[in-house]
Each structure stands twice: as C-alpha cells, then as structure tokens.
What does this fold into?
Amino acid sequence: MATFSAFVGLDVHKASISVAIADAGREGEVRFWGAIPNTPEAITKLTRKLGERHGCLEYVYEAGPCGYAVYRQLIAHGLACRVIAPSHTPKKAADRIKNDTRDAITLARLLRAGELTFVWVPDEIHEAMRDLVRARQKASHDVRQARQRIQSFLLRRDRRYAQKSWTKTHGVWLANQSFEHPAQQIAFQSYLNTHGQAMARRVELEAQIGELLPQWSLAPLVHALQAFKGIAQIIAVALVAEIGDFHRFASARQLMAYVGVVPGEFSSGSHIRPRGITKAGNVALRALLFEAAWCYHTPAKVGSFMDARMPADVPQEAKALAWKAQVRLCGRYRRLLARGKKSQVAVTAVARELLGFIWALATQVVPSPRPSANGSAH
It folds into this structure.
C-alpha cells in the first residue's frame, strides 16, 4: 500500500476547481492552495506542480454533476484519486458557513483522517449503459405521469372505465371520448398525445437496451439473473447497471445495506427501538427490487411465459439457484402472511432475501471479454 506525503482535496465545479492540501501526519498543515480552471490542461499543470513539490499524493473530490472526467484523467496519469459520496461526508451541526475554500480544506483533512466514504466508479461502457437504463426509467416515469393526468381529467368530468385500464380496449374507449366544449377536447387530446409519445419513447429505449446488451461485458450476468422469478431483461439490466461490480461487497449483508433494505435501529442504553428499513442508497434500484419481489406472492412455479422469456444461454447452475430461491421466498411470503404480517412487510422481507440470492449468483458469473475497437476481445 502506497504511503502518501500529502492529501489533496478538490472542490470541483463546472468552470473551476478549488484545491486544498493536507500534509501527512496528525499535526500536518492543512492549507488552501488556490483555484484553477476546470480544464484538462489546468489539471495536468496542477498535478505536475504538486507532484514535484510533495511527491506521492492522493486526490479526492465529491461525486456530482461533473461526472468522473477528473478521476479518469488523474488515473490515466498514474495518480491516486478517490471519489466520495457527498451525503456521507461528516459535518458539524453548528457549521453554517459553506464556500469552495472550506469545502476543499474539509475534503483534504477528512481524506487524511480516513473519514470519507468512497464510491465505486464505473468504466465508460458501464456508465453508458447506466445512462441508457436511467433514460428508460425517466421515460417510464413520464408514462405514469401522463396516465395520471388523463385519469384526473376524466374523473373531474365523471368519466369512469369499469374494466382493466390501459389495455387495447381501454385505448379505444379513450379515443372515443368527446366533450362539449372544443377547449376540453383539445386539452384531452394533448394528454393522449403526450401519453402516446412517452410510450413510444419507452419502447424505443427498451429496444436499444436489447440491441446494445450483447456488447456489454456484463451481459452474461444479465442473462443469468433472468432465471429468477420476477426479473425479466429490463429489471436485470437495471439491477446490474445500478449496482455495478458485485464483488466489491464482501457479503450479501453488505449489498442489502447498500440498497437500504436492512432494518434500522434507534437505541440508547437499555432501550432498544427497532425501525423500518433504512431506505439508503438508490431509490430506483430499491423500487425495481420490490417490483420483482411482489411476484413471489404466487406459488412456486416455472410457467410457460417465464420459460419463454428466459434466454437460451442461462447456465443450469443459475436455474437451480433461481428455483431454490423461488421455493424459499414463495414459502416465506405465505408464512409471514399467516403470522399476521402486512403484505408490504412480507414483500420487504422477500426482497431482502432475493437480493442475497442475486449476490450469490452474481459473484459466480464471469463477465465476458470486452470487445476492442477492431472487434477483438481483450
């Protein structure tokens, strides 16, 4: 493990980067170095100056809207750099002054003290797939929002559809709705058009995910996860894209804590007060996990639909583990309901255990070689 002579905190913004340095040692000086433009040339010049003066350095900055460009530039030059989670940065309750200088100094000091929580930085291909998955999630949110507007508009005019909504028959019923005033007809048609555009955008993004998936090194893991009940291609891609490298979690419990499905606690002395799940981490990831867990309220079974959607290259080991998970989780859901637990509590428990099975499978699947620019694998 490298021994660093100084620690550099970078407060990164769109146009500028504030720099602070903390000398090694408990009593080392912590000082503000200055501000530089946020350009590759200025960053290279900074690292050269600091390297000549201090030797071995470790850099740190907060994850934010500027992405990982600074991290990748520093790593490409052989420098040590870490990206931290801003929400986990220690902060004094009475600290009411915040500016770029103080932020950079705080980062340098806390990095030296080892009090920062680092995030996993994806490679360029993984980040690109994650961007595509998140674009699909936004499109799905737009669909739900458009449907809510249509339903609210109809409810205000006492228009009710008695059968199942958002089917082909329901679409015909919506298209045949007419209103007395032309303004209302135009407003309703604009809501229908918005819904149709959001649906088309979601379908297009899902098709692009399926087309680009074979080029991803984690495609074997995505295929293997589809052996689980409730996890089709879109949910499998989203889980892998958001979690990333499963091997960075030493145990399934660490992954559960990362997703935020472990029970919370607020205890002091002899008083033990359990709480609900912590809900830490990615909200969209947790929602996808709950969506998959709801499928385990039915008896364990591999039906024709599930067998048809499962990719042909799913290994037999993955199918065996998925069946073991299905038998256990379907039974656990029924037992929890029999004990008087609410269905939401039962699904949360199922989701937590399902995540453990996913971790067990993900740590066994070997990623495929990543194709290079000329088409060869490396």
Remarks:
- Residues 170 and 176 are 10 Å apart (CA to CA).
- The chain has three domains: 6-113, 124-215, 219-362.
- Residues 124-156 form the longest helix (33 residues).
